Amino acid sequence: xxxxxxxxxxxxxxxxxxxxxxxxxxxxxxxxxxxxxxxxxxxxxxxxxxxxxxxxxxxxxxxxxxxxxxxxxxxxxxxxxxxxxxxxxxxxxxxxxxxxxxxxxxxxxxxxxxxxxxxxxxxxxxxxxxxxxxxxxxxxxxxxxxxxxxxxx
Amino acid sequence: xxxxxxxxxxxxxxxxxxxxxxxxxxxxxxxxxxxxxxxxxxxxxxxxxxxxxxxxxxxxxxxxxxxxxxxxxxxxxxxxxxxxxxxxxxxxxxxxxxxxxxxxxxxxxxxxxxxxxxxxxxxxxxxxxxxxxxxxxxxxxxxxxxxxxxxxx
Lengths: 153, 153
Fold this sequence. Notes:
Two copies of one chain form a homodimer.
Chain A: E1 14-15, E2 24-26, E3 30-33, E4 53-58, E5 74-80, E6 88-91, E7 100-101, E8 114-125, E9 128-132, E10 140-147
Antiparallel strand pairs in A: 1-6, 3-4, 3-10, 4-9, 5-8, 5-10, 6-7, 8-9
């Protein structure tokens, strides 16, 4: 992870010292391919209807986990915002006159930078899902895919 | 984490060898308190309308991250299913005649056991959120809370 903790804060933002030890660990189970290579290009929120087609590429040994996924119109995707700093508890994304708590935002800047989007599943091509509705940089690590039902998002 | 990888498989289930090295790490930022102390008691899915009130307790130093969260009727909660095995790519939750891929399910059994629920936010009491709509065991570790907007769940 890039260490961004020395980046300057915006007015009203608050950073905290990070805990010394982690509590749990993740594997990256795949990679997300999108048209966006710089953070400024990413949409603020993915659009499952009008957004561009993106690819979710599963790594081995996880590909048998896709069996049956084509029965779902929508899936939830969890991914790792590996470029975001993790020490801000209050943020000021619009340079306003006050800060908002990290947990009252969906910013990638958060203690555990796991992003979540519900995407439309267009096609399954072997170990690759073609979807609409993502918002992240090309190359973003994949953490999970879950069947999506209307009431559990 | 309890090692459950030697538990017997159900018919049609498939386990894979786990990767040697992890790719990313999490902090547990709080703890979830629910009425359920055994897995068999947990509902299959949380109910934000009729489900019981549950508590989400934030740890320090993260509590300033709640500023402004009371403006949201619903929040998304990510939590760590620390009792689930991580090596199954195909599962048979109903002992049926075939398996379903892990990514076509919402089972806690998955490579990265991060669960996600959208809950109704009833009250904020200092570092504690009172919510309805969870489905997990009492004591479940908290990974993230995000503002919830209808179209991003």
